[in-house]
Amino acid sequence: MWLLDPSRKEVLRFAASCRVLTLVLQALFNAVIPDHRAEAFSPPRLAPSGSVDQLVEGLLGSVHSIPKPLLQLALDKGYRIAEGNKPPWCSWELPLIYSYIQDIYWNIGFLRYYELKQVPNFLLAAPVAILVAWATWTYVTTHPWFCLTLGMRRNKNNETLEKPGPGFLSPQVFVYLVHAVALLLFGCLCMHVQVLTRFLGSSTPIVYWFPAYLLQDQEPLLRSLEMVPWKPLAGDSPPGQKVPRNSIMGLLYNWKTCSLVTRCILGYFLTYWLLGLLLHCNFLPWT
Length: 287
Fold this sequence. Notes:
- By secondary structure, the protein is mostly helical.
- It has helices at 6-32, 51-64, 68-76, 97-104, 119-142, 144-148, 174-190, 196-201, 206-218, 220-227, 247-253, 260-280; strands spanning 231-232, 242-243.
């Protein structure tokens, strides 16, 4: 049975440990930082109208139930009323209110976010943008003719790929890379750039595949950990049965001897996870 595989047991054990740690940290953060009540995201809870209220509304509704001062106040505050002017999006050939809100209220559009005051948001999105750009450069420089011909040819001699190699540089990754580049360009040029991290992290696997490729390719300690024999089980375990070592924990234990690339990757993902857990669960600003 696949559950009896020691390596899969280790993966399940690691996932369960991460989940338990996440719940413990969330409970700790909630105890340290009081929760902010997000009433703005909840609809108002009004008591159901009684028979008297329905009778009054029926008698006065046709006359004029809203006093003129309140109507004028609504107009002064910018609210729309039934007898007022229609918003511009109502007269569009394709009336899309979401596009109108993005344009007028959120200032979303081509290069609209490129302002000096948005520099901190660009810095927040810089790591994931660098990862995708670096992944694209690595893949294109490794298979230039393959990318130029959109995966039709491997080189100029018209040789097609018969037995593609495994890993990040395999031809099957090309379509995911094109998708990631398109998302990156759209996010950088036409979106609020601070949402780029969650936008790419939930839309493309390149954000995770390429860091894993970098760890395997540029971290000597990881290769040495993979060569270390598995530790035997304690006690009365069957002879020859081994327990695999977790590579990520091995890198964290040997943090000072890790390469700069490894420390940057692990440091970024762990920091993003901890800060996101601390801020998001307490309704604080977080991407």
